[in-house]
Design a protein that fits this description.
The protein has helices at 2-38, 42-46, 60-67, 69-97, 108-120, 125-134, 152-163, 167-175, 180-191, 193-209, 212-217, 226-236, 241-245, 256-285. It is built from 14 helices and no strands. It has two domains: 30-67 and 240-279, no CATH class; 75-236, MetI-like (MetI-like fold, Orthogonal Bundle), CATH 1.10.3720. By secondary structure, the chain is mostly helical.
Length: 293
Amino acid sequence: MVIGSRVRGKAEAVLIALALSLVAAACLVPVAYELSLSLSSNTAVLSRRVGLIPVEPTLNSYREILKDGSVMRALGFSAWLTTVFTAVAMALTTALAYPLTRPELKGRGLIMTLIVVTMYFSGGILPLYILVKSLGLMNTMWALILPLAISPFNVIIMRTSIAGIPESLTESALMDGASYFTILRRIILPLSLPIIATLSLFYAVGRWNTFQDALFYITKTTMYTLQLKLSYIVMNNTQPEIFMSEGAESRLSVVPAALTAATVMVATLPILCVYPWLQRYFIKGVMVGSIKE
């Protein structure tokens, strides 16, 4: 019986690993195709011979991107914007979540209810646009930071994580004369590194992939985010490829499809590089609330 249960357990583990591997492979297929497309020659792209392996490999698409100063400027601005946004968002999220764990705070139940309500109801795009414009935030970086700076869902996760820290640590610190700010800085934050890393990744990925707010609030080309620039590249690449294949290819060094694929890879690579640094914290952070000690 024991041997049989072990065999079944191993078989189930193998099946689960196989299923997860297939899912992961399915998620990687679009990325592999875009990478292959960006590295293939114009002739291969136009003849639709590109699969998951580059055909007639070339770096012409990436050379075109590097020559386009607007794309590299958008990349640099997006990196700076994402860094500032993540720092501001985590500071505000922590500042809101920590007091909600303290029993001394009167009305914290009502505050939590109001926070939850905002997850289901909002004023809409038009009132938000009017608010941003009336505050004079148009064509400023803060128009892309403040409206999205706090996520109610992330606040709830942060509050749950902080509430799981033993109360005896806080009580001991209070008895020793520590202030709430000192407790937050020296006890709460060091013990919350996994959830901080997880939420930072959530905020960073969300900000990096968002382009709608930049489309509404930004008209200066020098403040275009990379995602907004990418959307314009995709929309503007409307030249029929059939004409290019009939002799017009010489007018462009890279076909629009390959250029778009290269831009997509440039936009995706920074987030893929950040994840390995946060992986060990991320795995712990996503488990918050799933296990009760």
